[in-house]
Amino acid sequence: MDGGMAPPPPEPVSYLCGDCGADNSLKPGDVIQCRECGYRILYKKRTRRIVQYEAR
Amino acid sequence: MVINDVDVREDPAWLKKHKTGKGQALEAPVKNAVDKFQLLPAFLKVRGLVKQHIDSFNYFVNCEIKKIIHAKANEKITSDVDPNYYIKYLDIYVGKPSLEQDYMVESITPQQCRLRDITYAAPISVDIEYTRGKEIVSRKSKQGQGGVVIGRMPIMLRSSRCVLTGKTEAQVAKLGECPLDPGGYFVVKGTEKVILIQEQLSKNRIIIDTDSSGCVAASVTSSTHERKSKTNFLVKHERIYVRLNTFTDDVPIIVVFKAMGMESDQEIVQLVGRDPRYAGILTPSLQECSSLGVYTENQALEYLGTKVKVMQKAWMKQTKSKVDEARDILQNVFLAHVPVKEYNFRQKCIYVGVILRRMLEAMMDPSFVDDKDYVGNKRLELAGQLIALLFEDLFKRMNSEIKRLVDSTFAKPNRSTVFDVAKVIRPDMLSQGLEHAISSGNWTVKRFRMERKGVTQVVSRLSFIAALGHMTRISSQFEKTRKVSGPRALQPSQWGMLCPCDTPEGEACGLTKNLALMTHVTTDEEEGPLINLCTTLGVEDLSMLTGDEINSTKAYMVIFNGLMLGVHRRPNWFANTLRLLRRCGKIGEFVSIFTNPKQRCVYVASDGGRVCRPLVIADQGISRVKEHHMKELKDGFRTFDDFLREGLVEYLDVNEENNTLIALYESEATSRTTHIEIEPFTILGVCAGLIPFPHHNQSPRNTYQCAMGKQAMGNIAYNQLCRMDTLLYLLVYPQRPLLTTRSIELVKYDKLGAGQNATVAVMSYSGYDIEDAIVMNKSSLDRGFGRCIVMKKASAPIKKYANRTSDRIVAPRLIADKEGCLRVPDRAQILDYDGIGGVGEIIRPGDIYINKESPINTRDTVPNPMAIPDSAYKPTPMTYKGPPGECAIVDKVLLTSNDEQQFMIKVLFRHTRRPEIGDKFSSRHGQKGVCGTIVQQEDFPFSERGICPDLIMNPHGFPSRMTIGKMIELLGGKAGVLSGKFHYGSAFGEPSGHADTVEAISATLVKHGFSYCGKDFLYSGITGNPLQSYIFMGPIYYQKLKHMVLDKMHARASGPRMVLTRQPTEGRSREGGLRLGEMERDCLIAHGSSMLLLERLMISSDQFVVQVCTKCGLLGHHNHKLRMSFCSTCRNGENIATMKLPYACKLLFQELQSMNIVPKLDLAEA
């Protein structure tokens, strides 16, 4: 990671429902549940930052 | 007949081209041998690989649970206070797995339970009838759900109550489950738990044994629903005694007879048998009885009454007389499983008579002594039975709890509301009891004084085979520490039932076993109809017969599940008729009928826990399964059940096998043959089934492979990337073995393999290949050979505290750097704005992945717990800990909550590794080795075709290991590569065409221009010269085992120390020191290297400078301000000496002082 970068602007993080795939945004204290289908497992989306992996 | 592949056989063009070594054309029709192999897939299709677990659980959920609630002691709860009050259980239901959340009942799937750390359980509900006030109310079921929920039952995956049953592969996959997963385990609090099969000595059977002094003894372990007891019969001073726990002393057998109403000595002797030798042996016992002055029933009972153990219950009033007590013991404890109706002991007397006769026979002829290790004398206890035990105990406890509640409410003088029991039943006790037992593995049933530990285990998910092998594992009750060979030895009777190869090495060797491929474990069957049937078929009732008639040489005794039913005059006709009925499907297919001419008994068994296996029935050596049957099976007109129903195939248990003559192959059948094996390789289990040509290997090698196959990395399941296991090893490019076996196809190992086909050259190279090390080709590693993924899970519960505060996750705090601009700290670089690491980010050791903060005060009440200031939190971040210098990738972040509404974050880290020096590899023949060196492909030997091996194995691995199977695998694999098809190497498969012969393989090799012996002409990669000898080279399936250097390597110069002793910490995980143990110390002492010893044990460990007062010998202290040392006891600094001591030594002195022991140091000039 490039350390000298300015702090990223606060962007809201949204999560994917494990069942229907809908986008969900969570606030502190919210119940972990999909707003669309009520499924209780949410996954975090892949980061939007650029990552470079080492292939060896 | 040698055929490589069944499918190819039908191809005429192929057949024309291929001739066997003898020149015989392959197209010659196979007339007499029917290929019965197709029965196996059909069998596994209807049964599945872990059917024994699932059947047993289904039986419990559907039948046994109902029996439990309808048992006399459980069915009705009454009150001691109000005689009109009662609660009666009418029916019980176990529903579908579901969970109630926010007052909504949701159906749950196993995968959800794993991810959310909840239990895959279904509500247990009951229909009850009870009194409320003056009226009788009943709560009845609606839509399969009972009136009142009493608890939650953990549900076995793929059992009848599981959501996965009856679903197609696609539907199963839709639920996030792997279609190839066998099921048979439970998901409790997110972890998969399997209840191991428990092996026990048969219940309710007479076992004749010899004791330590060589005397004959008999024992019967009685087990009924109400009671378990053990009755021993033993010989002391030529007299026979009964030993029971409830008697203080051994009681003479004749006294017991008399107490049971058999007063005449003649009748007793007649009951035992008319052989005069019997009477001779019994004489001392008879004499003793008369010398005791016991002649009548009453005298005998009075005598027994004096021997009854006195219960130390002073508060209980002695209500029963001694005689009554003795009679009760005889009725309820002594051989408890033999029914006694209205004190009619006739049946029990006959039972004792039979035991006595067996003992006397064994005294005269030692061959009558039973073998305790004989598989027919064993019963396997499965998940259903074990849960039934637990459930009944918990159910009884719940009932007594309800009764207590009812009594206490009725005892109150004035009640405001009408008492409604349906509202007070609390389901927690049952749910938690079951859940706790399965998750901890501690089975405690106080009623039977049962206390077992380690009944359940976490399903091993190292590889697909490991999980499958876990389901077939049998653990034995024997003590592991005892050095006995009997129970550990291979038993001839385990043929086809238990795998002869698959057992661990070391202390559990031979005690932990595995089921063979086709084994079935029976469940209990209804007894009543079978008893009626026996009577109808001419069994003469015992109560009508005298001892003489029972023992007559003309009749056989019929014993049903350990109970004497009566005698039959035509035992063979009786047995054959019963078998006929079984083959017609009129009685259960697992009922076994076994005539024992030696004991002159017919044993009919329908009890649960017997092992049995299917066999093809033959009439005078001619198989009933014909070619057209197999064709119909192939075309899908027939299933395995049809074979059973039509009496072509039947299940035999170990005992009944004794009445049969089983031919291994149809061609070997003679006119006396009654059965034919389906396939010989089914004697092996799932793990041993993976080995190609195991019948060519030295047997321990197959055992080693069975252990190693469970450690091989590969594919775990189709849903492996959706799982969140704590630790998961995956292979990046798994392959299916080039040389397969039929078992591999049956267990679907070819779909979820755990290894790669490596081209192996058997030669010596570089010297880094000694002691089983292997030399690896660097380019092969670049291409992905042996590359693996290690997934690690970290989970963080967001705790809620008693004062309603809770942990929180916050965005990383910005800190000012040197230039004064705000930035995210280095450790928190990968965090997103939500305070959780981003998916796909590279993470290094020490990085924060969850920026958690916890409230400092978690006890006292806080006015507004949701809005306490930032200063009230302390940071408790989760940091990544991994091998230093390596970096992992955040693979997945999951947010969920469990059934207690606890918020939880699970993070999965992925680490891809390529093989390095020291990683462990193994072929499928118990030949493990570590990677010794990695060599450039340029330096590797190569053939003129440009073939270059992936790894080089030292030929010294072969002579002492004698793994010929590995050589044949190499040959077969090479032929397979050249001809473009998979070759087979099933165990004992050559005669039936399920394994290719070396001749056939060699012919294929020659056809493709290779040497028949598999050797190749190679050039040295270093010099370019041809190698002096031809090299045995070809593909072998190699497994990468989970032991990797990266997880094990450890070194330390200086590092953390323990707080108390200031010695270095212990263990790799704590970056501990390397211990110089007492044996190493002894070496240094013996060598006389005292300075080295001092350096190792003190200077490099816990050296400490102390001030010693030479006068008083106690420790003083040093004042740094005054730069002076003082003795605290003498209060001066005159006689102080400074010396070095291990800190542990100083600690010991102080600890001793604290206990009023004063150690003093007496110093002398060195």
Molecular structure report:
- The complex is a heterodimer of chains A (56) and B (1166).
- Chain A has 56 residues and is mostly beta strands.
- Chain A has strands at residues 14-17, 23-25, 41-44.
- Chain A has a domain at 12-44: RNA polymerase ii, chain L (Rubrerythrin, domain 2), CATH 2.20.28.
- Chain A has a 3-stranded antiparallel beta sheet with strand order 2-1-3, with no helix packed on it.
- In chain A, a hairpin with a 5-residue loop joins β1 (14-17) and β2.
- In chain B, α8 (253-259) packs across α11 (297-307), α11 crosses α12 and α25 packs parallel to α26 (998-1007).
- By secondary structure, chain B is α+β, with helices and mostly antiparallel strands.
- Helix content of chain B is 26%, strand content 23%.
- The longest helix of chain B is centred in the middle third of the chain and has 29 residues, at 383-411.
- Chain B has 7 domains: 47-196 and 380-412 and 421-438, Rna Polymerase Beta Subunit, Chain: C,domain 2 (Alpha-Beta Complex); 206-312 and 319-373, RNA polymerase Rpb2, domain 2 (Dna-directed Rna Polymerase Ii 140kd Polypeptide, Chain: B, domain 3); 520-559 and 590-677, no CATH class; 688-787 and 916-1040, Dna-directed Rna Polymerase Ii 140kd Polypeptide, Chain: B, Domain 6, CATH 2.40.270; 789-913, OB fold (Dihydrolipoamide Acetyltransferase, E2P) (Beta Barrel), CATH 2.40.50; 1052-1097, RNA polymerase alpha subunit dimerisation domain (DCoH-like, Alpha-Beta Complex); 1102-1166, Alpha-Beta Complex (DCoH-like), CATH 3.90.1800.
- Chain B contains 30 helices and 59 strands.
- In chain B, strands 22, 28, 29, 30, 31 and 32 form a 6-stranded mixed beta sheet that branches. In chain B, strands 35-51-36-49-48-55 form a 6-stranded mixed beta barrel. In chain B, strands 1, 2, 5, 6 and 7 form a 5-stranded antiparallel beta sheet that branches.
- Residues 1-26 of chain B have low confidence and may be disordered.
- In chain B, a hairpin with a 2-residue loop joins β3 and β4 (104-107).
- Classes of the chains: A mainly beta (56), B alpha+beta (1166).
- At the A-B interface, β3 of A face α6, β38, β40 and β46 of B.
- Chain B: Its main location: nucleus.
